[in-house]
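FAQ

Q: What does a record look like?
A: Structure on top, sequence underneath. For example:
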């Protein structure tokens, strides 16, 4: 690749399917030179689809074409010494190796990091597997279904919908969310390792497991429990108004749980035809609406069924009310917002033709995301790549020009400063990554406009004691930061903010579109203060386009991207993903984007603007459904927990209340092993069940028979029993079980952080293991305004008298 933020990096990808190739795709799309090693039969994604007109062809798979653009393909048989010798030769001059082989196979093939490091001490080896290379589950097998449930996301899905937990099992997310989460997490971790190498001069093994990548999405729910063990842990159980409401021609995701939004909704009803019941005294107050919530929801639903989806959305948009259409893939493909922003990319391919697919998860304006070559043909570049490598001297891989002389340690971003205006979930999660990596992150708040996450502590604080410093959500999201308060509505406050910009490397914000520009803190303004500044702006739909003013929470925003349209029980309505999805995976994408931009700045001295639209990030993680529509004009149906490529594939009841296990037989051999484990019952011996087609035709019979067997066992008993036989199975867990899970404990996902006001609490650290950093330093989230004196007096040089005056006059407030 000739240009791009990562154009100095050489990457070898030895991975198939989704997680590893998605990690390498993210590197390639921002400029890295990625050589993809395929086995003689090709990456299994070549057989996945969707295919044009449903005709399978190894060069026409929509999943493969999406995941492997911008790469070169070579074929090596790693079972033979010739193939392994070629791989070792490639590794000598590579910066990064992305590999998905399990630990035992790495040892057998002599491709462990210890062996490869002897060839290239600066090599970063990113292992991307379902469970990582260590821990009691390291040899377990998995599918997207089992990872999604074992990682804790399934138990909370569908979001705010179910009224009978026993009759409605936990739900699988549409597409392959667990696998895309894993790939995104791996890409961010790789960039962290790049900075570690630039700071300390050594490569390392970055070991990413899918289970912890999914569990990372529960980083607000974990402290919610550890701060208040008696708290009710969020599940799929419906509490209050439904998240999705039907219209005459579709669905909308709408939030009505505040006085302001209820008033806005009343105004919408007045415009579209106000029903008589609106003036009832039963609904005139917030307390009345809560007390009569079931009746009110029925009335609102009946009224909504008479309205057009776009009419409701347009009016909510004009009032900046959280409301989005639950877009189908047709609506995604024809979205005026996506079209204005040229989000969908038409990529010509020599065999498949032009394939329209999702664009960037983050927009870097200085070094734009780009598809510079389509996905490679099988074995297209073997001769070219091997000739280039043979001619290339085995010099050390290039590294950016970071000042040397730092002490060895676990702070690869030491010396970087981040000015963080972000609030609530996604941006704070992203900047916490940078803080954990050693950057000085200054969290800007205001006592006059509290972060919603901090304000939650005034409703339920740690150990049942309310307080502005006792919020589980805020404290769980803002590790390793310093905290200041600043009134941006006062000109003196703005001047202080600009003074902080002048001494910072990164600025982040996720205010409503246009707000920062009006304050004089937009990118064009602040780069005049600090020309090499990197600025990240987050929003639901982006900073440009006809729908730029849209506002909403992550669960609402996923609706616009189309994810709920492909998620849901068979025959049921669209369903949202639980666990505050997608805020935290968007935060991981933001961390990746900022590290990518900083890497480019370190090489060139150039800053740039980063824009992350949450709906676009989500859409990059459902490419198969989008391509199914753009390729074949067909919507992907909601299938509950089933999968047309596997049977059995579902969630089955176990002993205990609301206790379930995910089971997926990936092929005929797995079915045979599963059948043997459950004792070859009579119902399972049908000759037709020897093939996938036969099992799919009798899926209900198989599901019923399996459920009879699982009911007599615990979900972990079923998981371990089936895993011992090589069958993918995972308990559908909730947060208490995850906190006690021996695998996540050994992997170090959970950390103990001692907060000055609430004491030591268990929280979520960084997913993955870094061989050069056995332990990261974790510091508690700041108290409100805790570091005002240190930052304003110590960093900016404000005198003690002036500081006292600014505090008294509520500028520093």
């Amino acid at each position: 690749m000739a240009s791009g933020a990562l154009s100095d990096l050489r990457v070898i990808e030895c991975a198939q399917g989704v997680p590893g190739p998605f990690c390498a795709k993210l590197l390639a799309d921002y400029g890295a030179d990625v050589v993809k090693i395929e086995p003689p039969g090709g990456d299994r994604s070549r057989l996945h689809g969707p295919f044009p007109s449903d005709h399978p062809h190894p060069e026409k798979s929509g999943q493969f074409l999406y995941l492997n653009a911008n790469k070169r393909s070579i074929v090596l048989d790693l079972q033979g010494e010739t193939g392994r010798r070629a791989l070792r030769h490639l590794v000598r001059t590579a910066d990064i190796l992305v590999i998905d082989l399990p630990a035992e196979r790495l040892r057998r093939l002599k491709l462990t990091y210890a062996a490869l490091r002897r060839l290239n001490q600066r090599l970063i080896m990113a292992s991307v597997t379902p469970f990582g290379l260590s821990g009691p589950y390291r040899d377990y097998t998995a599918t997207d279904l089992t990872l999604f449930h074992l990682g804790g996301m399934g138990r909370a899905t569908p979001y705010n919908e179910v009224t009978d937990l026993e009759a409605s099992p936990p739900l699988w997310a549409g597409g392959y969310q667990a696998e895309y989460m894993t790939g995104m997490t791996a890409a961010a971790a790789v960039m962290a390792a790049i900075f570690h190498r630039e700071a300390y001069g050594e490569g390392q093994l970055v070991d990413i497991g899918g289970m912890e990548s999914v569990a990372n999405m529960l980083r607000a729910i974990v402290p919610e429990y550890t701060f208040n063990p008696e708290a009710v842990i969020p599940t799929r159980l419906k509490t209050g108004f439904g998240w999705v409401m039907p219209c005459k021609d579709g669905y909308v995701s709408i939030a009505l749980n505040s006085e302001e939004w209820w008033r806005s909704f009343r105004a919408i009803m007045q415009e579209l035809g106000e029903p008589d019941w609106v003036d009832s005294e039963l609904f005139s107050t917030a307390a009345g609406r809560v007390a009569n919530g079931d009746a009110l929801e029925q009335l609102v639903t009946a009224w909504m069924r008479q309205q057009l989806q776009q009419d409701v959305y347009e009016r909510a948009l004009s009032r900046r009310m959280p409301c989005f259409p639950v877009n189908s893939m047709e609506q995604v493909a024809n979205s005026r917002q996506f079209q204005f922003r040229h989000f969908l990319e038409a990529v010509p391919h020599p065999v498949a033709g032009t394939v329209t697919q999702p664009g960037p998860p983050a927009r870097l304006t200085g070094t734009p995301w780009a598809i510079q070559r389509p996905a490679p043909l099988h074995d297209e570049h073997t001769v070219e790549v091997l000739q280039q490598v043979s001619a290339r001297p085995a010099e050390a891989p290039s590294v950016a020009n970071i000042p040397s002389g730092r002490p060895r340690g676990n702070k690869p971003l030491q010396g970087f400063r981040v000015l963080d205006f972000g609030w609530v979930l996604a941006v704070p999660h992203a900047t916490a990554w940078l803080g954990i990596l050693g950057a000085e992150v200054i969290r800007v708040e205001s006592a006059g406009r509290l972060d919603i996450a901090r304000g939650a502590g005034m409703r339920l604080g740690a150990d049942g004691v309310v307080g502005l410093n006792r919020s589980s959500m805020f404290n769980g999201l803002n590790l390793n930061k310093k905290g200041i308060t600043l009134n941006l509505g006062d000109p003196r406050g703005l001047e202080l903010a600009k003074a902080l910009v002048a001494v910072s490397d990164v600025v982040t914000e996720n205010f409503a579109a246009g707000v920062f520009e009006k304050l004089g803190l937009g990118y064009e303004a602040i780069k005049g203060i600090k020309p090499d500044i990197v600025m990240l702006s987050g929003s639901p739909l982006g900073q440009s386009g006809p729908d730029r003013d849209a506002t909403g929470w992550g669960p609402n925003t996923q609706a616009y991207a189309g994810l709920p349209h492909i998620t849901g029980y068979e025959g049921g309505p669209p369903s949202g993903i639980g666990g505050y999805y997608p805020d935290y995976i968007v935060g991981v994408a933001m961390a990746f984007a900022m590290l990518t931009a900083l890497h480019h700045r370190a090489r060139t001295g150039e800053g740039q603007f980063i824009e992350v639209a949450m709906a676009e990030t989500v859409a990059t993680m459902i490419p198969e459904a989008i391509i199914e529509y753009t390729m074949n004009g067909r919507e992907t149906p909601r299938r509950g927990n089933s999968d047309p490529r596997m049977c059995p594939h579902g969630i089955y009841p176990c002993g205990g209340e609301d206790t379930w296990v995910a089971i997926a037989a990936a092929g005929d051999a797995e079915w045979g092993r599963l059948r043997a484990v459950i004792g070859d019952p009579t119902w399972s011996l049908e000759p037709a069940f020897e093939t996938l087609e036969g099992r799919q035709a009798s899926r209900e019979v198989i599901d019923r028979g399996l459920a009879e067997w699982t009911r007599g066992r615990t979900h972990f008993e079923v998981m371990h029993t089936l895993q011992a036989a090589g069958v993918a199975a995972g308990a559908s867990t909730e947060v208490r079980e995850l906190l006690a899970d021996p695998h996540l404990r050994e992997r170090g996902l959970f950390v103990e952080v001692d907060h000055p006001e609430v004491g030591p609490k268990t929280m979520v650290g960084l997913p993955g293991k870094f061989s050069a950093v056995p332990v990261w330093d974790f510091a508690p989230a700041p108290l409100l305004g805790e570091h005002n004196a240190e930052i304003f007096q110590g960093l900016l040089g404000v005198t003690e008298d002036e500081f006292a005056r600014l505090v008294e006059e509520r500028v520093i407030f």
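Q: Is there anything notable about this one?
A: The mean pLDDT is 96.
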